Amino acid sequence: MTRPFAELACPLCAAGDCRPYHRDRRRDYCQCRLCDLVFVPPAQRLTAAEEKAIYDTHRNDPKDAGYRRFLSRLFDPMCARLAPDSRGLDFGCGPGPALAMMFEEAGHDVSLYDPFYAPDGTTLERQYDFVCATEVVEHLHAPGREIERLLTLLRPGGLLGIMTKRVIDADAFSRWHYKNDPTHVCFFSERTFEYLAQLHQCQLEFVANDAVILKSRVE
C-alpha cells in the first residue's frame, strides 16, 4: 500500500474512513467504516484489457441446465414479483446472456448492456420495470455511481435484482475463494445493502444467500 487505508475513498459511498480488512499474497482489502463495503485499492485493480482477457475465457452457455439453476436463485424471486410482459435490462450480460433468455422465455422483453460484449449505451437511456445485475457488482470500480444509475433507470416501483456473494466476517473472508478472482474488487455484506436501501429509499429483500432485490419508491 502506498497510501494509508484511512485516506482511501470508498468506491461505494465515497467516505474517507477505511480500515485494513485482509491481505493475501496478491492484494490488500480495505473496509469502509460507513457502508461496510470491502474493496481492493484502486492501484491494485486490473486494467480493462486484463479484465476482458479473463472474461473471454468464461464459458457460460445460455442453454446449460446447471448455469440456469444457478441464475434461478435471482430469476425465480424476480419473476414472482413481476407483472406479465414487463420490460427489463440485463446489465453486465456477458457474452452469453442466459438470464435475458430466461426472462424472455417467461414472456418479458429484455434489453442487454455490457461494456465489453453489448456496449449499446442507448439501453442506459430507457426506463424499465426491472434491471438485473448477476455476478456484476463485485467487478465494478465505481459501484456507488453504477448502482445509482441503475436505480434511475427504474420506473416507480421497479425492481433491481443483484446477485453477488456476500461478506460474512473477516475470518470467513480469509478463506473465501470468491476473493481470489482478480476481477473481483468489491465485496458486499448485508449491512452494505441495508446502507444502499436507506440511501436510495428502496425496499430491500434478501431473497437468497447471494441475491437481493431493491424495489424503487412508488411516487
Write the layout of secondary structure elements.
Elements: E1 18-23, E2 28-32, E3 38-39, H1 48-55, H2 65-81, E4 87-91, H3 98-105, E5 109-113, E6 128-134, H4 143-152, E7 154-163, H5 170-174, E8 186-187, H6 190-200, E9 203-208, E10 211-215
Parallel strand pairs: 4-5, 4-6, 6-7
Antiparallel strand pairs: 1-2, 2-3, 3-8, 7-10, 9-10
Walk me through what this model shows.
With 219 residues, this protein is α/β, with parallel strands linked by helices. The chain has one domain (5-215): Rossmann fold (3-Layer(aba) Sandwich). It has helices at residues 48-55, 65-81, 98-105, 143-152, 170-174, 190-200, and strands at residues 18-23, 28-32, 38-39, 87-91, 109-113, 128-134, 154-163, 186-187, 203-208, 211-215. The strands form two sheets. The protein has a six-stranded mixed beta sheet with strand order 5-4-6-7-10-9, sandwiched between helices. A four-stranded antiparallel beta sheet has the order 1-2-3-8. Helix 2 (65-81) crosses helix 3. Keywords: Methyltransferase, Transferase. GO terms for molecular function: methyltransferase activity.
Give a brief description.
The protein has one domain: Vaccinia Virus protein VP39 (Rossmann fold, 3-Layer(aba) Sandwich), CATH 3.40.50.
Strand order of the largest sheet: 5-4-6-7-10-9
The CATH topology turns out to be Rossmann fold
Summarize the biggest pleated sheet.
Answer: 6 strands, mixed
Task: Name the beta content range.
Answer: 15-25%
- Give the uncertain stretches in residue-range form: none
Percent range of helical residues: 25-40%
The computed structural class is alpha/beta
Q: List the helices and strands in order.
A: EEEHHEHEEHEHEHEE
Please write the CATH class name.
Alpha Beta
Number of helices: 6
Number of strands: 10
